[in-house]
Structure prediction request, 137 residues.
Amino acid sequence: MTKIAQLCMALCLIVSIWACEGNDDPQAQNQLVGKWKLEKISGGIIGSGYKANWNSIDVKNDLTYRRFNGDTLKFSSTYKFQTKDGKEEVIFAEKPGDKINQIFESQHKRFKLEKGRLILEDPCCDLYLYEFSKVSN
Prediction:
């Protein structure tokens, strides 16, 4: 194989991998965008969830999100989507050294809308389940 053919194949492979790296599913993003009131956290080792230091999450179209306790901003970062085992998941980005928020951000979340509620669930380990009601778009 000539060097030009090898270079073309390598370039095609790199472009293919880069193009498939993320999931830019606008429908999934549109479902998630809005301000959501945290109603309940369940799961964990003993099944009763944990007491969060926040009570709402505001997910934006620009792939950023903010968590609030009332009107007080508690945390902000970015998110992205991935498909794993045929299921749509959202990854909320951690900030290094932020121990208080690591419970929520530590795992990717499967998500679904069910009867007007947003359900986020950890697919592994602690298996926390977060239930939200929509406050606004």
Summary: Helices lie at 3-20, 26-32, 102-105.
